[in-house]
Amino acid sequence: MATSDAPDPNPEFDTSQPTIARVYDALLGGKDNFAADREGAALYLKYVPDAGRCAIENREALVKGVHYLARRAGIDQFLDIGSGLPTQKNTHEAAQEINPNAKVAYVDNDPIVLAHGRALLATNNSTIVVTSDLRRPQEILDNEEIKNHLDFSRPIALMIVGIHMHFHDDEKPDEWVRTLMDALVPGSYLFITDFVDTGEPLQKGMERAGLESLGNGWIRTPERIEQHFLGMPLVPPGLDFLARWFPEDPDADIPAVEDLQPYQRILMAGLAKKV
Ligand code: SAM
């Protein structure tokens, strides 16, 4: 699908309103977005001029986490919910460059992800794309395609990367994730990135951009983000800003928090193991 300002000939998509997946694609520099999405992305850039770099750092953190899981933790099954468009470098590429047999199930509630994914992954038997909703975790667990693709008697990495911010705490998103984690065996992992609130104006700007463009995109304190992990132990270095988060090498030369650019203090990542 090409970038277009013309009405979308595919009635499956409402292109008059921005969607999270397409705004994110626009921020990542992708082509699968429409005028309303680019207006949404422009609002982000108005309040956070480096919002595109935040999106890129988020994808880089995703790759760091998947490499840790595939290489160090021996994980070969990934359930990636809120996967976004499988463009740029995404989970299947990161996992399968370490283990070509790694299986990935992408789940997203935006139908554009399925439409795009079908074409892109037509030749990749180890990866599937399913349209479903994190708000209905049991539906994800009961999905026949997912059940046929992933072996739930073996460890699975559940990825909820760059999606929590789109839910208000009143919706209790941690309960949806708990339902999913309860279905996974010990040795499985939970990988999360989220918008953080440590009192910085640019973090507030990110929230404002999200609320004005998409009607969601809340920031949370690090203490609140830690609760997403449902009490499971975090893999070193624990929860940290993306640019400081190196699970494969927690002793690497980590920049001090004060040395990070303000845009690098908007997202945090963490990885927990079910024991
Ligand atoms: N995980 C990818 C990454 O970090 O690069 C993409 C993150 S993107 C910011 C958030 C994605 O979550 C979008 O593709 C959006 O469509 C999807 N999403 C939002 N709400 C969802 C829901 N309730 N269920 C499933 N996916 C959802």
Can you give a write-up of this model?
With 275 residues, this protein is of the alpha/beta class. It has a single domain (20-247, 260-273), classed as Vaccinia Virus protein VP39 (Rossmann fold, 3-Layer(aba) Sandwich), CATH 3.40.50. It contains 10 helices and 7 strands. The protein has a 7-stranded mixed β-sheet, with helices on both faces. S-adenosylmethionine (SAM) is lined by residues 20-21, 24, 58-59, 62, 81-84, 108-110, 113, 133-135, 161-163, 166. Keywords: Methyltransferase, Transferase.
Which ligands appear in the coordinates?
A: S-adenosylmethionine
What fold name goes in the CATH topology slot? Rossmann fold
- Report strand order across the widest sheet: 3-2-1-4-5-7-6
- The value of Rg in angstroms is 18 Å
Please outline the major beta sheet: 7 strands, mixed
Overall CATH class = Alpha Beta
The name of the CATH architecture is: 3-Layer(aba) Sandwich
Low-confidence stretches: 1-9
Percent of residues in helical segments?
A: 25-40%
Give the percentage of residues in beta strands. Answer: 5-15%
| Helix count, DSSP H or I runs of 4 or more residues | 10
Structural class: alpha/beta
| Oligomeric nature of the chains | single chain
Give me the CATH superfamily. Vaccinia Virus protein VP39
Number of DSSP E strands: 7
| Domain tally | 1
Shape: globular
The averaged pLDDT comes out at 94
Pattern of helices and strands: HHHEHEHEHHEHEHHEE
Please report the distance between the alpha carbons of the first and last residues.
43 Å
GO molecular function: methyltransferase activity
Keywords: Methyltransferase, Transferase
Pfam families: Methyltransf_19
Protein name: S-adenosyl methyltransferase
